[in-house]
Design brief:
With 171 residues, this protein is mostly beta strands. The chain contains 3 helices and 12 strands.
Length: 171
């Protein structure tokens, strides 16, 4: 059974104020960046609690995103949200297409070579431009493995929590 922690997926963070009418600057983890605005309900972490709040409006602004939350029409009110993580419920996400995965679903998978050698666990992923990269930890040893389907990543079993890769274990 999924824990409450698994139900909330962090998609961004409120990292500043924008103007005097209650707008906030948002650092978005979504791709493209403004996809964060497609979720009508955001959950903001305030202390150890998640608090639902409705998105009133938002838009791209330069290289970032700005938004106004429902009931937040003054700069002083908006200031109280700065530093809050923004999450959505897993059920708000669109179903991933076959062969596509949300990064959050790959984190924690056990990684082994096609020969059965354990390489560690996916800690996080990096976006490099050419392709995404899996950061696999085994103790203090860190491996960077390109996330290239079929060529490097041969199998992903989300139910079994494992990934099989064609990768030299000495690399």
């Amino acid at each position: 059974m999924a824990s409450e922690q698994d139900d909330y997926l962090i998609v961004g963070r409120i990292n500043g104020l924008y103007g005097v009418r209650g707008w906030v600057k948002v650092f978005s983890h979504t791709e493209p960046r403004d996809n964060i605005l497609s979720y009508q309900t955001w959950y903001l972490r305030r202390g150890n609690e998640w608090q639902p709040i409705e998105l009133a409006e938002g838009r791209l602004h330069g290289k970032g995103v700005v938004a106004r939350l429902t009931g937040c029409d003054e700069r002083d009110v908006a200031a109280g949200f700065v530093g809050s993580d923004i999450a959505v419920l897993r059920e708000q996400l669109q179903q991933a297409a076959p062969g596509e995965y949300y990064w959050t679903d790959l984190i924690g998978l056990s990684v082994q070579t096609v020969g059965g050698v354990e390489l560690g666990v996916v800690d996080h992923l990096l976006e490099t431009g050419a392709n995404d990269v899996l950061v696999v930890l085994q103790g203090k040893h860190e491996r960077l493995i390109p996330f290239i389907r079929e060529q490097v990543v041969r199998e992903i079993d989300l139910t079994g929590k494992k990934m099989v890769v064609d990768w030299d274990p000495d690399f």
